Amino acid sequence: MMNRRTFVSRGVALTAAAAIPAGLLGACSTEDDPSAPPDGVASVASPTTTAFPSPTEPAEPTGRPRHGGSIAAAFLGAGAAESLNPFVPGPALSFARHRAIHGVVGNLTGDPEDPFAGDLVESIEPSADLTEYTLRVRPGVRFTDGKPLTARDVAASLELAMTTGRGSFVRFMGEFDLAGGRVEDDHTLVLPTVAPIADGASILGIGMAFVVQEGTTEFTADMPTCGPFRVAEYVPGEGVRVVRNDDWWGGDIDGTYLDEVELRAIGQESARVNALRSGQVQFANDLEPVSASAIGPSDPFEIEESALPYVSGLSVVMNMAQPPFDDVRVRLAFKLAVNRQQILDTVLHGHGVLGNDRYSIGFPDYTELPQREHDPAEARRLLDEAGVSDLDITLTTGPETPGMIGTALLVAEQLSEIGVRCEVEQLPPGQLFADFERYTNSTLAGSYSSATPAGLYYAVSFTGGGPGSFGWHDAEVDRLVAQARGTADREQRQTLFDEVATRLHEDGNLIVPAHRTFINGRVPGLRGVRDGRYEQFPSFAFAWLDD
Amino acid sequence: MAALTLVALSALILVATEALPGDAANVIAGPNATDVQREQIRQELGLDRPLPQRYVEWIGGAVRGDLGDAYVGGAPVREIIERRLGNSLILAGLAAGVLIPLALLAGTIAGMRAGEGAERGISLTALVAFSVPEFVTGSVLIAVFAGAMGWFPPVVLLPFGGGPLDAPRSLVLPVLTLVIVAFGFATRIITASVADVTESPYVEAARLNGVTGWRLACFHVLPNALAPAMQAFGLVVGALVGAAVVTEGLFNYPGIGAALTTAVAARDIPLVQGISLTLAAIALGALVVADLLETTLTRHLRETR
């Protein structure tokens, strides 16, 4: 089992993305040194830091963690109606609340050698033939009503996720045969897979596997939980006040340090910045790159950015089911027409990392390929060769995540360099994915991706050529991905993923100019937020205040 | 008549929400869901049933006070509206409480001094207030009074378990924003009405009898000018509740306008319909009250004469 210090020194960031967040810190163990200060710097360094030049390093923590104090933190909320079901993806506030009060099976580390960091499940071991996974449930954990956590709770939670949950996690979990699962004893659960998969631990550790008590039929604010905090007051749509859970299993080791945290819903980003600036909150989640760039020395707060792999890929997708993108030369011409550095510099103000036309950067199964260069001359030649000239095209997008509109506008401008007249159609917030049929029938669509391992992303988005694949349908690549995911040997698996990545890079329909980091603002005296490993939706499990 | 209008509006609201591109099933399912999962959610939400059937069920429930359950979270729409409407009414009430006397004063001065500097100054102020978008007005107020001066908080964060009146300082800027935005419209209506009355024979007769200044304004001009201005006040009060969408979003005020914005983005149709119907009912109610007041005032003036 990996202890907290080992985990920190490996420099893995357990944060998450919009649709697939990682859960609570799983790296605490009884082997930890309670007097050790949080190592904020080490915790943000990713195994792939060489590919990630830009994020701001956090301030060096000063002093030692201390107990006491309270903070208010601002997140994007759901509005007047919101779900307390942790298996239903929601806005940032919902995830932050779930992370504060619930435990999870575990988290992803980003480490190819040891991708799973246990939380309520200490370890996950696949069988040799990859058809079964054995989950060892952490002993000594209790819910807030005093009942001990057992393997039955974990099994029931995974069932609840499937029956009441939504989103990508439900699709990922479809790879397990939950009906065939066996509770072998109070702390051992065996889950068969539908087909042999090597990345079962990645699915269970992706952070949506929250654990609730067996027998849970509805999700309420006062339900028994086993996270670092428990709910004291809850106002739907406005926020929640959580107080330290003194019986939290991780509390024996490090904290929770803060007495209480107010998680506040503040919808507009400018309002979150204003609240932080005026001292109404001490932490503000998900700031715009332009806001982060405008922060000066006189501002009473600092910014922290997420590290790889927890970034969001901004993309332009070409619909291969429609001309002219059914021609690989046109797709390549569009890729070459995009000046990625310019987008990173001007749209993201440097708060991100250069894209290379694939998502999942920083995950162990992501393949580093030579960076695609900006080459408008070659792009024009390819268009001529394809017989495509005088092209009018519409790029459909919406403000679903910071940078999407700016990226689309700049791509459209860059396309004019190769003689393509590109009009950007900006949809109102929420409409892009709400009108899914229109989105997937767009000739050119501006989109984004949350942080997901490459194999899983391909499996849910591209395999079989569904609507979300925008016309990509390659049975051979589907086969390679399935083969890679079913290969136990890591090197062999990576060789197969490398082949998939090369095919997608050359023939695919995805332009990813840049990946944006998640930017949070915090007052200088608030330390240790990153020790919760989760900068996009922090749990504040290890956060503390300076004297 | 008001009831019939409300029924017609309810049908319009349903058609309008139906015309919103996309549906809640896509929002709930997320972009990576399969077609089967989307269809399953669509069935769970009842979106696969014909529109007339859904309308009959919805309007039948609405008559009984049951506006259905929100798609997101499943809470009863009525509960959500009750929670948020009270906050919006407080905001609108405070704004109206400041606006109406202010607009009456400014409109009376401007109307009685037509062509003079005071009239030009007030008209210009009203025009600017009316022309500047709500978002800009609010942002300027935040920059000046929250940012530069630090007098008021820029964001409304109500205490847990408390209401807007428990955080009075945080109400100042949203109320001021609403007042400024509505001031232009209300003042121009009053100005026109007062100017009209000022030229009437009975005001002229009062002048010839030696009545001038505030006595002329309060006892002869305003009572006669108020009756035609009542409809304008009705419109303003109704609009203050509904038009708070931008202000509530800007200041993070937990009112019904902010709830409507997020419900539209989530395609939470029952909530959009419930809130829209409530706002329509409030606007209608304000006009009905204004009608009654106008009638009462006119009758009283006739009897007095």
Furnish the topology, listing elements before pairings.
The complex is a heterodimer of chains A (547) and B (305).
Chain A: H1 4-9, H2 40-44, E1 70-75, H3 92-101, E2 103-104, E3 106-108, E4 116-118, E5 121-126, E6 132-137, H4 151-164, H5 168-173, E7 182-185, E8 188-192, H6 200-204, E9 210-211, E10 229-235, E11 239-244, E12 260-265, H7 269-278, E13 283-284, H8 289-294, E14 302-305, E15 311-318, H9 328-337, H10 340-346, E16 352-354, H11 376-385, E17 391-397, H12 404-415, E18 420-426, H13 431-434, H14 436-440, E19 444-449, H15 454-461, H16 475-485, H17 490-507, E20 510-517, E21 519-522, E22 526-527, E23 544-545
Parallel strand pairs in A: 1-12, 1-13, 17-18, 17-19
Antiparallel strand pairs in A: 2-9, 3-4, 5-6, 6-8, 7-8, 10-11, 11-12, 13-21, 14-21, 15-19, 15-20, 16-20, 22-23
Helix pairs in contact in A: 9-11, 16-17
Chain B: H1 2-19, H2 24-29, H3 35-45, H4 51-63, H5 77-112, H6 117-131, H7 134-148, H8 168-198, H9 201-208, H10 213-242, H11 244-251, H12 256-265, H13 269-304
Describe this protein's structure.
The complex is a heterodimer of chains A (547) and B (305). Chain A has helices at residues 4-9, 40-44, 92-101, 151-164, 168-173, 200-204, 269-278, 289-294, 328-337, 340-346, 376-385, 404-415, 431-434, 436-440, 454-461, 475-485, 490-507, and strands spanning 70-75, 103-104, 106-108, 116-118, 121-126, 132-137, 182-185, 188-192, 210-211, 229-235, 239-244, 260-265, 283-284, 302-305, 311-318, 352-354, 391-397, 420-426, 444-449, 510-517, 519-522, 526-527, 544-545. In chain A, helix 9 (328-337) runs antiparallel to helix 11 and helix 16 runs antiparallel to helix 17 (490-507). Chain A is globular. Chain A is an alpha+beta fold. Chain B starts with a helix and ends with a helix. Chain B has 305 residues and is mostly helical. At the A-B interface, helix 5, strand 12, helix 7, helix 13 and helix 14 of A face helix 2, helix 3, helix 5, helix 7 and helix 11 of B.
